[in-house]
Amino acid sequence: MQERCINKSFRKRTKLMKKCSNFHNSSLRIIVWNTARRLQERRFTCRTRVAKSHLNSFLSKEMLQLMLVSLWNKIKMVKIYSLKFRDLENQLYSEDNNKVENRDFLGLEQALDHTTGRKVPDHLKLIEFRIENDRGKAAGSAHFSVLVLVCAAIKEMEESDEFSDWETLKKWAATLNQAKELGFRVGFADKLLKMKLLAYFATQLLKASQKKKGLAFS
């Protein structure tokens, strides 16, 4: 296409040269020729710019379509992940997941045996104070047993690494579920469990991704 435009421009210049030959004054002939040449070059430049503008517009539309498709795929993946996370959350907070005892926490029974009266073991005292501040009141005698369990669960959650296993998550959730049934809700414990669940979920996604790529994850 560009070659055709050049040939067309060359033919026009040839015609102009013939017309310019009618001028007897050589200086006038050169002025007319140069003026005509510049006009033709401007026209050719303008046509080239218009063509480039159309091309850029086409590319912009293509890029926009690709971006929209990519965004839609990400939105779908977010929805899928959100549903999977919600399913795990529902399993943890299920009404059936509420069975937990002192022996389910390492060293708790022994610590209670060495504690006189109905008191929280020494290694859980600080957590007991934090629970009182969170709830705005001290736990009554009716809530003593569940208070001890919640203290033990919080201690484990805070001391464990981020990659907790599913059974341990269920034990922590069962503790908080049992406490809620007795009207003993601890806000910061719920947030802590949510963070642990998020870490578990992210770890599972990473493992699945590495497995698909044929890589090991430890």
General description of the model:
The chain is an all-alpha fold and 218 residues long. Helix 6 packs antiparallel against helix 7 (187-213). 74% of the residues lie in helices and 0% in strands. The protein folds into 2 domains: 2-64; 93-213, no CATH class. It is built from 7 helices and no strands. The chain has helices at 2-20, 26-92, 108-113, 125-135, 144-159, 166-181, 187-213.
Attribute tags:
218 residues; single chain; 7 helices; mainly alpha; 2 domains; disordered N terminus
Topology summary:
Layout: H1 2-20, H2 26-92, H3 108-113, H4 125-135, H5 144-159, H6 166-181, H7 187-213
Give a concise summary.
By secondary structure, the protein is an all-alpha fold.
User: How much of the sequence is in beta strands?
Assistant: under 5%
Q: Say how many strands there are.
A: 0
Helix share of residues?
Answer: over 70%
Radius of gyration, whole Å: 39 Å
User: N-to-C terminal Cα separation, in Å?
Assistant: 60 Å
Order of helices and strands: HHHHHHH
The oligomeric state of the chains shown is: single chain
Unreliable spans are 2-7
Total domain units? 2
Shape: elongated
- Total helical elements: 7
Largest sheet: none
How does the helix and strand content classify structurally?
Answer: mainly alpha
- Overall pLDDT metric: 77
